[in-house]
Amino acid sequence: MAVINVHERRLPASAAEAGVLLDGLAGSGDRLWPKEKWPAMRFDRPLSVGAIGGHGPIRYTVEEYQPGQRIRFRFTGPRGLDGFHEFTVTEADDGSLVRHLLAARPRGPMRLSWPLVFRGLHDACVEDCLDNAERALTGTVRAPTRWSGRVRLLRAVTGRTVARRR
């Protein structure tokens, strides 16, 4: 079973303006990643090809980086998630298009944990990213993302699990 998961948002700003948000990922002035709601994205060095890091239990390496246009992250963990996720920014008729693509092949236990746990959390996190992009470029969010009951429950459960580990 292959997983292809796409989220996108059209924004009334140029691709160059939206691209600045990509370039700030995991930096001190990051306005894209929703670190106020999700584990922060961190790397062992500034954003560049070969940087190693991730967010929460999700680990990856920066595989490709075209400043202002595209960042591709190759998954390195958790085990059983083979593939990548990426952000791209392109010009659109009315401004720009910010897209997030996850393409992976789950193996072993991930075949169950992706649809039961990770997919909902992933979708909510990416939509929160897109809300941040819209807010950063327009000052507001036309239709803010609302977490499903399932995501709120998973967040509560995983939050308690993280607290116990500490």
What is the fold's blueprint, element by element?
Elements: E1 3-11, H1 15-23, E2 41-43, E3 52-55, E4 58-66, E5 70-77, E6 81-92, E7 95-106, H2 110-138, H3 149-165
Antiparallel strand pairs: 1-7, 2-3, 3-4, 4-5, 5-6, 6-7
Explain how this protein is built.
By secondary structure, the chain is of the alpha+beta class. The chain has three helices and seven strands. The protein has a seven-stranded antiparallel beta sheet with strand order 1-7-6-5-4-3-2. A hairpin with a 2-residue loop joins strand 6 (81-92) and strand 7 (95-106). The longest helix is centred in the C-terminal third of the chain and has 29 residues, at 110-138. The protein is globular, with a radius of gyration of 16 Å. The protein starts with a strand and ends with a helix. Residues 160-166 have low confidence and may be disordered.
